Queue: 3 jobs
Job 1
Amino acid sequence: MVGRFATKSLLMLLCAVILLGWSGVAFAQPPVGGTLPDFTLSAPKDSGEKSYLGLSWLGRSFRIPELKTKVVIVEIFSMYCPYCQAEAPKVNRLYGLIEGNPALKGKIKLIGIGAGNSAYEVGVFKKKYSVAFPLFPDGDFRIHKLMGEVRTPYFIGVKINSDGSHSVFYSKLGAFESAESFLNSMTRLSGLQ
C-alpha cells in the first residue's frame, strides 16, 4: 500500500514538473532565414494607417505576411525604454526616406510593436515622438514572448514573397548609426537593391 501511494505521488509530481516546464517554454529570437512566429495584429482604426498597410478593406486582425508589400521592418519598442526614445527621431527619418523615395514607397512598410505597452501607452509614444507609421500595443507581452523576449529596440526585417510565404532577413538588437545606412542595409539584405 505504501509503495503504491509513493508511486502515485511520484507520478503526480513528475506530471506537475513537466506541465510547469512546458508553461515556461522560451521562444528564440526570430532567426535570419527563418520565419516570424505566428501572431496577429488588430487592423488599425485610423484610415490613413490602414491605407498605408494596404488594409483599407480589412476590419479584422491580420498577420504581417498578409501585408501587400515586399518588405516589412518591425521595431519592437517600449515607451519606457530610453534607447527607444532616443532612437525615435532616426526611425522617423527612416520612414521619411522610404516614403519620399518613389522606388521604395509601397515596397517597404514600417511598423512598431510596443512590448508590454497598452494602447494608451503606445498612443502617448506615438504622439510624443510624432511617429507617422502604425504602432501596435502588446500589453500582455504575448508577441514579445513569441519573439524571444528581446530587449528593446529590436529590429526585424521580413521579406514577403509573391506566393505569400515570408522569411526573416534581419534580426538584431540595438540602435542603428543613421537612417540612410540602415535603409541601405535593408534594401541590400532583402534583395530590393
Job 2
Amino acid sequence: MLEPADWTAIWLTLRLATITTLILLLLGTPVAWWLARTRSRWKGPLVALVALPIVLPPTVLGFYLLLFMGPEGPLGQLTRFLGLGLLPFTFWGLVVASSFYSLPFVVQPIQNAFEAIGERPLEAAATLRASPLDTFFSVVVPLARPGYLTATVMGFAHTIGEFGVVLMIGGNIPGQTRVVSVQIFDHVESMAYPQAHGLAASMVVFAFLVLLVLYTLNPTGRRP
C-alpha cells in the first residue's frame, strides 16, 4: 500500500518528467535538425557532447552540474544576479539537471528521424515555393513523427528513472526534491521493505507499460 509520502513523490516525479520532456523537445529539435543537416567539422564533437550523459556516471554529471549551478558557477552567478537565488536543492534545479541527463534520449531519435527523411521531400517543397519554416513544419515534422514519439516516451521515462543526478542536485527534501527513486532509497535505508516493494513494483509496471506503448505505436522507433 502506497503512503501519502509515496504519492507526493510520484506527483513530483511526473511533474518533473513532463516539464523536462517539453523543454527537451523544444530545445532538442533545432539541435537535432542541425546535426542531421550539417557537414561542419564540429558535428562529431557536438554529437559526442550530446551523447555524453549515456556513458558518464550520473554522480559525475551531478557533481559538475552542482558546481555549474552553485554560488561560484556561471549559472549560479547568473541566477543570483537575476534575483532568482541558487538552483541546487530546488525543483527547478532538478529540471535543469534532468534536461542535461535526458538530452541524448530526446535528441538522438529526432536526429535519426530527420536523417531518414532525405532530400527529396525538401526539394519537392522548394519547387512549390514553400519557405524553409513552412517546409519544416508542414513536411519535416509530420514525416519525423515516429522519431518525436520515441523521443517523447524515452525522454519522459528516462527522467522518471533518474537517481544519481537528482540526488546530487536536489538532495532529499520532501515535497520539493524527493522523487520516486529517492523515496524508494529512503524506504530501503529505513528497512521499510514492504513500502519499498510497493513503490518499486509500481515503477516496474510503469516501465513495462511505457515500452509496450512505444513498441506498439511506433515499431520502427525501438532504438533511440
Job 3
Amino acid sequence: MKKMYIEERAVCLAHYIIDNKDTVRGAAKKFGVSKSTVHKDVSERLLKINPGLAAEVREILNENKAERHIRGGLATKLKYNHNISKDDNIAM
C-alpha cells in the first residue's frame, strides 16, 4: 500500500472496520500494520481526529470483543473435527 499519514491511516482503518465489521486483526492484515498500531489508531488517535467516527468503531470493537470467545470455540471445534476426520480416513 502507499504511504499514509497517521491521521489518514486512522480514518481509513476506522472506515474499513465499520464497513466490513472486521476485527483489529483483520484490519491489521489488510493494511499491513501491527494489531497494536490499529488499536492505537482507532482507540486513541481517532478520538482526537473524529470523535463521532471513533464512537462508531468502538461499537464494532466492543461487539467483536463480546463475540471472540465464540469464534475461538468454533476454531477449536473445527480444528478437532478436522483431526478426527483425518484419523478416520487413515483407519479405513
